[in-house]
Amino acid sequence: EDGSVVVWGHPDYGGSCKVGWMLTEAVVLISATQAAFSALKADGSVVTWGDPEFGGDAGEAGPLLQFGVKLLSATYGAFAAVKEDGSVVTWGKEEMGGKQFGCGSRLLQGVCNICSTYGAFAATKEDGSVVVWGDSACGGDSFGLELRNVSQICATYSAFAAVTAAEIGATVVTWGDPDWGGDSAVAQELQDVVQVCSTYGAFAALRGNGSVVTWGDPACGGDSSAVAKRIRKHVIQICSTYGAFAATKADGSVVAWGDADWGGDSSHVQDQLYMVSYVCGTFRAFLELRANGTFLLGDDAFDSSDESYDGLLVGVVSLSGSGGAFAATKVDGSVVTWGEATSGGKSSEVAQHLKTGVVSVCHTAGAFAALKANGSVVAWGDALCGGDAEPISKHLGQGVTKVSGMYKVFAASKSDGKLVMWGDEELAFPVQEVTQQLVNVTCVCGTARACAAVRSDGRVVTWGERAWGGDSSDVSHQLKDVVQLAATGGAFAARTSHGVVVTWGDENSGGDSLDVWDQLSSGVVDLCHTSGAFAARKGDGSVVTWGDEELGGNSFHLTFDWNNVKQLSSTGYAFAAVRADGTVISWGDPCAGGDCTAVSSQLVEVRQIYSTYRAFAAVKAGGAVVTWGDLHCGGDSSSVHAALQEGVLSICGSYGSFAAVKGDGTVITWGDPTTGGDSSMVQPVRIPDADE
Fold first, then answer.
1. Which among 563, 565, 619, 558 has a CA at the least distance from the CA of 587?
2. Taking a C-beta distance cutoff of 8 angstroms, is the pair 480, 470 a contact?
3. InterPro entries, per this entry (predicted)?
4. Which of 104, 226, 468, 674 has a Cα-to-Cα distance from 351 of 20 to 30 A?
């Protein structure tokens, strides 16, 4: 829990560590080859030890691993590190991916994820393309394959499978060793795929219609004929062990197949496998699950199958907050709502659709939309903000892969590449000329009266009122290879894969970045915004701001130490930045979070900052929470101080209140009671007052 590392075993294989003094704290991830380890630390640095030939010594790559690393992966003999600027650093056995033969130039930027087999790597880029390298027998050669619009990659021992968008819906492309899934004999069935999962030697694909298709080594789950009838419909999720698969169905039952020694035979516990939500060996929300079906909540034990806890904040895994309400997704795939009824706090009209199968929830200013495992969408809340999807319901019944929320509009991406929108009529139904361009959209963003979408080819499509950013024609020649969009109330900012930022829209809200154009011409890795200003974080840890000075666009007037900033967050009026050492700085409107001096001594070892419209909440190592900003919008957490001293995993904000998910699946709320700060009506137990 303190982030330290202990090693033991054969010294030649990493069981002895000469750099132990570097592993006493702040380690967040460990990866391993056959004979070496690499550890990622909270400050973005990497520590290696073990056999130098297998990556125990990073050699020439060492200096590049001292900062900015966000992800590690390993083959049997080499490591790969993805950095925050989208570049990839490799070391170890060259033939097993330690050297980027013939593809190094494509790994200098834009990489967002990485996957590995025994001897090869596959990197997914922000534009949906894939770069592979390493042993060709293990998938290191994808020559002749069309790997575009890729949304997911997974791997067996020596083969890869990629989910790609196509006209017929999401399909699967495989390559590598055919005996381990690299050659799919069921290719014709792999249409409208929503998830792919793998064991050591086989793949399983979940389709939008709830059926499962398998291929690869029969002994590792590639042959599902024994359970074929049970997995041809109503499956909502699949997961795997080393040699077996398990499928969760909409009725809460579980079907398993594959190697019995690795969980492929569940017959001896089948009578207990009911009302199951999601099955995962490392799912943190189940850490407190007891063998008898109970779980811990504080000092009390509760039966997870007891229907009396339906609709209560027990077993929560994620939160979403609109302007005035919250929606909590539970481990059983159900959703609980509270807060202002007109902002989505009341979901009784769609309650029957929110009892199971929900995988994610997003929001606009006054409504929620839930994406279900079967590819359908359920919406509720203010109709003017997207709470009524009935007029386009025929387009939301299946095939939806992602839902995004803007100010008053929802946008659903479908497996056929189309984009379906609803909410504000002026923005949700653009003219046909715009609609025809909205294909293979990867992200959408909105100001108060305009929208912008990035396509998989990196181009940007805009619509809405020109003064609010709805017309990007003046900068269209610069809007190429775009990977991120951000929006204030009246302007847009786009970041390209080359680290360049392009702006347009209301000049006073950040649409004019001429004063800082030289600082935005390279090296930008992230964008953040208030209601009237932008902040750009660069790869070297520096920050650039522009827009309304009173709303945070004034950093050039400040004397902070801007080095090594690793995360930006914002309210509607102020910015906050977490530095690599875990300390925090803030600027903008001092009454809305721009001044954190009153709690600066507490802001150490901070790992994440969240916000309402006028206050911040920082989660520290160990799960303690520190708040500041408008006292009436969540800046004062004294009423729940005792409950926020440890164990908080994540926080969500509405306009004026916070909700925090703890490790035991409970939720703590504070702030404006009318916008969700009071959750007493959906709490299973009374939360003690601070002075009790």
1. 558
2. no
3. Ran_GTPase-activating (IPR051553), RCC1/BLIP-II (IPR009091)
4. 674
